[in-house]
Amino acid sequence: MIRAARDRIGNNLRRTPLLSAPALDEIAGRRVLLKAECLQITGSFKARGGWSAVSAIVPQIRARGVIAFSSGNHAQGVAHAAREHGVPAVILMPKDAPRAKIDNTRALGAEVVLFDRERDDRDALGAELAERAG
Questions:
Q1: E-assigned strand segments in the chain
Q2: Which CATH architecture has domain 2-133?
Q3: What is the residue extent of each domain of the chain?
């Protein structure tokens, strides 16, 4: 599954570097490398999961669009993948999610639907939106 996801991602996302961390090497007593996913297109490794998920959907079904739930990084990953695949994305985000995450998700082309995590049933809302959109 991991190799299949890697193959679907291909060159569609950034190849982020591994960085050495001598201070961590000393603490750990071995070499430690840090994957600089903050340099990824959406600023997070979640772009990989978003791409993997969207690209794994059968094209005829994917064309109808995708729905995801997220407070931020996954939202941006799915929004980016949907945009690059030319399909609509609806992302349900809690209304108390960081404003920058909401704005960035919208900037990537997704429709953002905010919900109150205290009062709303996120899963029921998502199911209702999916039903309405077909």
A1: 18-20, 33-35, 66-69, 89-94, 111-115
A2: 3-Layer(aba) Sandwich (3.40)
A3: 2-133
